[in-house]
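Progress against Task 2.4 (sequence-to-structure conversion) is shown through the following example record, which the project officer requested during the mid-term review.
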Amino acid sequence: MKSWRRFIGGLIHFVVCWWCLSLLTNNRSLPDPLETLERLWTLRHVVLLHAGASFMRVFAALLLALIVGVPLGIFLGKSRHGGQFFSPLIYFLYPIPKVAFLPIFMLFFGLGNQSKVLLIFSVIVIQVIVSIRDAMKEIPAMYEEVLRNYTTTFRHRLYYVIWPALLPALFGSLRVSIGIALASLFFAENYNTSYGVGYLILSAWAKMDYRQMMVGVLIIALMGYGLFAMIDWLEKKVVRGRG
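Structure tokens generated for the chain above:
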């Protein structure tokens, strides 16, 4: 019930701010929430298809970033030579706008979902790697020295020392990555696609259908909230399970 109250409270604040901006600007390019909700209801079946396509792309990219980024972050944090060798490369890649690589991804992986997922993955994976690497470096050496008196297997070190220390950084990195992923999604879905919230927004803007455009913006906001709520739920489950 608490999560539902938080959702309703956040939605009310969002709608009130939106309505105030709409009244203050008095511009048809920013329709009020009621007009937008009416349009959402009219387009509900189409919007579900767009939202489903976007959600699957973001979810696949996040999952892939975790599968690749967490082990690499642990390796770079534990290996002094690996960190020295690969860190300069990460520092060069991190500030590059990955959206510039979309034409390359399309040439190598085609115009479908694969290139879009890989673009979003490339944007967030370095964020995950750096967060996990830095968290590894913050683990006090004393913890592993104490555990070494009882066991020397990496599996036990991973479960009892490394994994608990990484959890805060991992969930924090996921929250940052969600915002970056949704921003990248909007760009990726503007090219060679028929479904996706980014496509819905841009096509509506091109037709000057501002109510439909705001429907897309609202869907991105709801999608972001849903992903954040999922991360919060998962964090509670993992922490409670370890407790």
